[in-house]
Write a structure and sequence with these properties.
This protein has 560 residues and is an alpha/beta fold. It has 19 helices and 16 strands. It catalyses: Hydrolysis of terminal non-reducing N-acetyl-D-hexosamine residues in N-acetyl-beta-D-hexosaminides.
């Protein structure tokens, strides 16, 4: 890696060199332990945390224990607006979405207030305050640094970028009082038609995904944020979005073990704090017709018994249609716990879930021992991560702690190192220094502005330009985007496509002269695209997926 980029990464990546996952409950050694055993200090700390968790558990009522199983959607933008949820259910956690968030100080104050409310209610157990901050297309925060998507990380083949992304994200989340991130995605994206994973995955190679997911998870943990690896047993080979339906992955078990399992096995072996289930139907693992989230064979059998995982298992959101096909919302909650889940994310009707769980415990359907196992895992993780007695976030200083120059530099370095040149017919790139360039399509304003800053004359008319740049964003099957590329080709001007979503767009675009994949539409990636087009940065990324129907294979990438 060039020195100028490496220096931008060091500030955040160094955090990830600290042995992580000390909060594991699986008994696996931290990945940084050369002997394969935790250090004496780590063992003592873990033992003290476990004892604290057992003591807290012994004084909790059944209702307080059931509350720990639930992670509810935060309400409003203040702690007061969610106080009713906390006092009514004593939940194990809350999850933030954009409608809860407006600014750094507001988020930190809300987080602090929610923790105070939790301390004053029930057993006084601190909250997991979580968010989906994968970076790239799944980024809920309105503030802070925006890094490119996971597939861009995979294109660099450099775990330092994974560590820098997660380390910077963890630092910013911590400044906001957020202590859990539903990331990283460990799905191997083997299906080009996947409507919900795509660039959220590091790629189509399980070894690459394993390496990058493990690096991110370790850096999140080293930064004080609980990582949640998702979506077990794998969501990468689906053509249905589990938000709207139930995907069926009908592949033999040996194929699943080869393609989808390795990243999750690596997560288990590293002792990751939490793993999220997928609302997918995989007959090779369970032919009952139940989605994996409700499957004792998948969670209890494969994840717990075969892989030996004893950390927290959390469901994906229970308001998604993929898990609501055949049971009531209350019954879904009960079946998820019976299958082996510990936390229920976003039950659509919290009261129905709470009542169903309490009735199941009273009737013996869920035994006290089974309930206690889940609660003990949750309490132990909270103790190991220092949530009990934690200092509140510095609300007044939160704004200065997010979106720092160091973090933005790390995002720029990732974007530049991930740009992958896949076509360069006739040496159309880099652009001639005195060229007039038309820029249209997705990201045209940002890419055009970047080229203008570098001295190019930019227009919107391909016919009057020396080169036509067309931005796409997952354009396969999108008539409007494809027509822009066709119009540029028909002008007779050499056409360069900048693909900012999945790189699979090239299969539908016809014979374009240049094709640059950035795997992300964040500002850093569009700025990097302009610099690569101009030759200010040489493209260095390598394709993290194969592209069916073309001669482009995993690992391909041109440079100049």
């Amino acid at each position: 890696m060039p020195l100028r980029r490496l220096s931008a990464l060091l500030g955040t990546a160094v955090l990830a060199l600290v042995p992580a996952m000390s909060g594991c409950t699986s008994g696996s050694a931290p990945s940084g332990s050369p002997s394969g055993s935790p250090s004496p200090s780590a063992s003592a700390s873990d033992s003290a945390a476990a004892e604290r968790a057992r003591e807290r558990l012994s004084g909790m009522s059944v209702e307080e224990k059931i509350g720990q199983l639930m992670v509810l959607l935060a309400e409003g933008t203040t702690a007061e607006e969610s106080a009713g949820l906390v006092s009514a259910y004593n939940p194990g956690g809350l999850i933030y979405f954009p409608e809860n968030l407006s600014g750094a100080e507001q988020i930190a104050r809300m987080s602090n207030g929610l923790q105070r409310t939790a301390a004053d209610n029930g057993a006084g157990v601190p909250l997991f305050l979580g968010i989906d901050q994968e970076q790239g297309m799944v980024s809920r925060l309105p503030v802070g640094t925006r890094f490119p998507d996971a597939m861009a990380v995979g294109a660099t083949r450099d775990t330092a970028h994974a560590e820098a992304l997660a380390g910077a994200t963890a630092e910013e989340l911590t400044a906001l009082g957020i202590n859990l991130d539903y990331a990283p995605v460990a799905d191997t994206n083997t299906n080009p038609d996947n409507p919900v994973i795509g660039i959220r995955s590091f790629g189509s190679d399980p070894d690459l995904v394993s390496e990058m997911a493990a690096a991110e998870a370790a850096a999140f943990g080293a930064g004080g944020v609980v990582p949640v690896v998702k979506h077990f047993p794998g969501h990468g080979d689906t053509d249905v979005d589990s938000h709207t339906g139930l995907p069926v992955i009908d592949k033999p078990r040996d194929e699943w073990e080869k393609e989808d399992l390795p990243p999750f096995r690596a997560a288990v072996e590293s002792g990751v704090d939490a793993i999220m289930t997928a609302h997918v139907l995989m007959p090779a693992l369970d032919d009952s017709g139940e989605p994996s989230t409700l499957s004792p064979d998948v969670i209890g059998g494969v994840l717990r018994d075969e892989l030996g995982y004893d950390g927290i298992v959390t469901t994906d959101a229970l308001n998604m249609e993929g898990v609501r096909q055949t049971h009531s919302d209350g019954e879904v909650a009960v079946r998820a716990v019976l299958a082996g889940a510990d936390q229920l994310l976003m039950p659509p009707d919290p009261q129905a879930a709470f009542d169903a769980l309490r009735n199941a415990v009273r009737k013996g359907r869920i035994s006290t021992e089974r309930l206690d196992r889940s609660v003990l895992r949750i309490l132990t993780a909270k103790a190991e991560r220092g949530l009990f007695g934690a200092e509140p976030a510095d609300a007044a200083g939160a704004e200065a702690a997010v979106g720092t120059q160091e973090h933005r530099a790390a995002a720029r370095a990732l974007a530049e190192d991930s740009a992958t040149l896949l076509r360069n017919k006739g040496g159309v790139l880099p652009l001639d220094a005195d060229a007039t360039v038309s820029v249209t399509g997705s990201g045209a304003e940002d890419i055009g502005a970047g080229l203008e800053e570098l001295g190019y004359t930019v227009t919107a008319d391909p016919a009057s330009a020396d080169a036509a740049v067309v931005g796409t964003l997952s354009a396969r099957g999108d008539a409007e985007q494809l027509s822009l590329v066709s119009a540029a080709r028909e002008s007779g001007t050499p056409v360069v496509v900048v693909a900012q979503g999945t790189p699979y767009d090239i299969t539908d675009l016809g014979a374009v002269d240049g094709y640059l994949a950035t795997y992300s539409s964040v500002d850093a990636s569009r700025s990097a695209a302009a610099r690569v087009l101009a030759g200010e940065v040489a493209p260095a990324g390598r394709l993290p997926v194969g592209i069916p129907g073309t001669d482009l294979d995993f690992g391909d990438g041109l440079s100049y």
